[in-house]
Structures are given as C-alpha cells and as structure tokens.
Write a sequence for this structure.
C-alpha cells in the first residue's frame, strides 16, 4: 500500500532564511513524487514532481526538492523564504504502475517578516 | 481557459439527505479524482477513475458513490450512509499518462446540519 508521511505539522522560518519541508513515502514499486501548495479555501496548485532522472528537481516559485531513494524521502526546499510562501504544503506519491495518488497530511509553513 | 469546475462552492444539507457534488473538466484529461480534506488529516482519496465507465475505490469510499458516463464529468454523491460528511471536497484530473501532475478544482465545502 502507498503512504506518505509529513512529520511536521508546522514549520516556522524567518524571511530570507532557507526552508525545508519534509516528506517520506512508501510504495511497493518505484514512486512518482509530487509537491503541491494550498492557499486558504482554495484547490491545490502543483509545484514540482520527480518522475525519473536527476534527483534534484526544480519547480515553481524557486522551490526545489531532492529525491533520496535510500531514505525514501522527497524533501521540499527553498534557499530564501518569502512571507508570501506561507501556505499549506502537501507531498503526494503515485506508484509507477497506476493512477492512485496518495497525499500526506500537509505541513503548514509560516514565514515571518 | 481550460480547467476544472466544481459546484456548488458551498452547500448546506440536513442530516440524512443525499448530496451530489459536480465536477467538470475541459482539459481533455482521462483520469479524475475525488478527495476529502479535513483539518489535520490532509487529503484522503475517495474514488478515482482512469477512463470513462470505470472507477476505483480509494481509501475512504464508504458512504460515497460516483459515476463516469462522460470524459468531462465525474460527479460525487455523498449518501446518508456517510457518517461524518461535513468536509471540504476536492476534485482533480490528470492526463492519460500516469506521470502527470493533478489539476485541482477550487473545492466544494459541504456542511451537514
């Protein structure tokens, strides 16, 4: 069975500092991995994905994520946080064999000015 | 513009009534999904459909039903058997290749009184 864990309910960071939002996953085969962002009372917006190839993937708004197969992790990072990055972030996994897509519980990011 | 339209945005119903949430997409996507979002629990998969006239149960399908008679449409019925239906419901779609990211609607907030 697929599963995703986001171990931190909330991450607090000062503007201009680097940020990391953690994600670990479990799938029976190889994973496709995704990060999304959600603003209040809205749908989710896609940030980036890992399908294959380079373990470091770059996405929208300066975000990047590193796929680590041995640690089954896909942490989201940004070198310099902005106040406008404050939102709810979701990690998701899909087994390469199908379409079923499972999300983590989400991590709320607060960036303080 | 292409996208996913969910309606209604807000819905109030009395306990024991069935409710149908609409989801329409004009992205020509093959796969469609329904998720339920509750605070602190992330997105939980209710049903998904890879092609017309076919759908699979997700992790919390009990008390819900769906149909996929047209490629563009994937309505969700919240039945009276669903014990705790008050939630934010999100519809999503993706292209035929299972490497694609999900595109989300703006959500429907159901409140059962």
């Amino acid at each position: 069975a697929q599963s995703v864990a986001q171990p931190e309910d909330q991450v607090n960071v000062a503007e201009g500092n680097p940020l990391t939002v953690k994600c670990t996953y479990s799938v029976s085969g190889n994973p496709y991995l995704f990060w999304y962002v959600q603003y209040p009372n809205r749908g989710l917006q896609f940030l980036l994905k890992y399908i294959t190839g380079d373990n470091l993937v770059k996405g929208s708004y300066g975000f990047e994520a590193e796929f680590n197969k041995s640690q089954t992790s896909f942490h989201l990072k940004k070198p310099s946080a902005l106040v406008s990055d404050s939102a709810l972030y979701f990690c998701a996994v899909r087994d390469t064999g199908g379409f079923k897509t499972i999300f983590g519980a989400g991590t709320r990011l607060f960036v303080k000015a | 513009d292409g996208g996913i339209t969910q309606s209604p945005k807000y819905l109030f119903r009395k306990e024991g009534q069935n409710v149908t949430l609409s989801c329409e997409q004009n992205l020509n996507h093959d796969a469609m999904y329904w998720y339920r979002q509750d605070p602190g629990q992330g997105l939980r998969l209710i049903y998904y459909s890879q092609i017309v006239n076919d759908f699979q149960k997700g992790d919390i399908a009990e008390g819900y039903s769906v149909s996929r008679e047209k490629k563009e449409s994937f309505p969700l019925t919240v039945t009276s058997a669903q014990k705790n239906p008050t939630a934010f419901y999100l519809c999503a779609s993706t292209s035929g290749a299972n490497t694609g990211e999900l595109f989300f609607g703006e959500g429907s907030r159901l409140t059962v009184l």
Summary: Chain A touches chain B at residues 6, 9, 32, 34, 36, 41-46, 49, 51, 90, 92, 94, 96, 98-106 (CB under 8 Å). Chain A has a mean pLDDT of 94. Chain A has no helices and twelve strands.
